[in-house]
From TrEMBL:
Keywords in alphabetical order: Transferase
GO MF terms held by the record: N-acetyltransferase activity
CDD domains referenced in this protein's UniProt entry, alphabetically: NAT_SF
Protein name: GNAT family N-acetyltransferase
PANTHER family: GNAT FAMILY N-ACETYLTRANSFERASE (PTHR13947), LD18367P (PTHR13947:SF37)
Domain of life: Bacteria
């Protein structure tokens, strides 16, 4: 994966990115009063090969001017049919508000859909108000079943209603959401669905 968004390059994580990616995540966690957990919830950042690359997932970094300023990732989980969890969408404060978070989320969703997954899960915490706004405006439905100790919110989004994306879309093509009426029906169905 290598894509450009404004002045940012979003690309696959490489082993030489390990410390810089960890620094982005730990600094954002500290900004929100949350602890860095290298032996717990953040162990995956230090072992990207085992948690993402060797399990059919992906871990990306966003950089500008040669500096890593953001991260985003996903890996398969057993929470639902063909499910993945989006993880580690973190951005340095000075690059927020430019649409990079939304771009990362949309690109992750596109990659996940192309890989044949049908559900996306993600966890966050109430103090990350901007992230919650992004997820809710991107049609993620809050549900129950938080698994990460520092998180108090879990969201899910079903992709089973989407048609397959083309393998090689033209550079100017964009993934379009389902019509609003169909989406509202899907959303009300998901709200009434119980998740493990």
């Amino acid at each position: 994966m290598k894509k450009t968004y404004r002045d940012f390059c979003v690309r696959d994580w490489q082993p030489q990115d390990r410390e810089a990616a960890a620094a982005v995540i730990s600094s954002v966690l500290a900004e929100y009063g949350l602890g860095w957990e290298p032996l717990g919830a953040d162990r995956d950042v230090l072992e990207v090969e085992n948690f993402y690359q060797n399990r059919g997932g992906a871990f990306w970094v966003a950089e500008t001017g040669g500096e890593i300023v953001g991260t985003g990732a996903y890996y398969p989980i057993h929470r639902g049919p063909k499910a993945v969890e989006i993880r580690k969408i973190y951005l340095r404060p000075w690059v927020r508000g430019q649409g990079l978070g939304k771009f990362l989320l949309q690109e992750l969703e596109t990659a996940i859909t192309r890989a044949g997954f049908q559900e996306i899960w993600l966890e966050t915490t109430s103090v990350m108000v901007e992230a919650i706004g992004l997820y809710e405006s991107s049609d993620y439905i809050q549900t129950t079943g938080v698994e990460t100790a520092r998180c108090d919110r879990v969201y899910v989004k079903s992709l089973s209603h989407l048609e397959s994306l083309p393998d090689n879309p033209s550079p100017n093509s964009h993934f379009l959401p389902p019509p609003i009426q169909s989406f509202k029906m899907l959303k009300s169905t998901q709200k009434n669905r119980s998740f493990p």
